[in-house]
Amino acid sequence: MGLDFVVFKQLASLKAEYGADLSLADEETGEVDLESLRLDDPWAAAVALDHRVGNINTVYYLRDLVADILMDPDSVLQTQVLYSGSHVGDVIKASAFGQLRKELDALRSVDTPVIVEFVAGLDALIACAEREGNPIVFS
């Protein structure tokens, strides 16, 4: 068990690449109906970017570090990202990206490898989500 993020590719780009008969399986996440892709590895084709945060212990370690740094129990990182070591299907919508960026900025001065990797991963996910027009999804 652990925590992973994905951003799904835009439906329009998947249709252009694989065919016009594709449909969304989930409007909120932007996930395409994988069966309609008819590929050997439809998941790989549908995902624009994935990032593993880590196992449950890593998530709880990150949660404690972030709590000590941000000192805000209502932060996006505390309430939507690191509140559990495994929460599949939850999303971070574009409306939360501004606050999430502010919180990540507060973490940038920390020179702990797990924090550096976490911040870099979320930076990449936010950029990808904005480019694809889909939220960040926990998988």
- The class by helix and strand makeup works out as alpha+beta
Low-confidence blocks of residues: none
Multimeric state: single chain
Total strands: 6
| Adjacency order of strands in the biggest sheet | 4-1-6-5
Beta content? 15-25%
Shape: elongated
Question: How would you describe what is shown here?
Answer:
- This protein has 139 residues and is an alpha+beta fold.
- It has helices at 11-18, 34-37, 42-46, 56-70, 76-81, 97-107, 113-132; strands spanning 2-8, 24-26, 31-32, 47-55, 91-92, 136-138.
- The chain has seven helices and six strands; from the N terminus they run βαββααβααβααβ.
- The strands form two sheets. The protein has a four-stranded antiparallel beta sheet. The protein has a two-stranded antiparallel sheet with strand order 2-3.
- A hairpin with a 4-residue loop joins β2 and β3.
- The longest helix has 20 residues, at 113-132.
- The model has no long low-confidence stretch (mean pLDDT 92).
What are the salient characteristics of this protein?
139 residues; alpha+beta; 50% helix
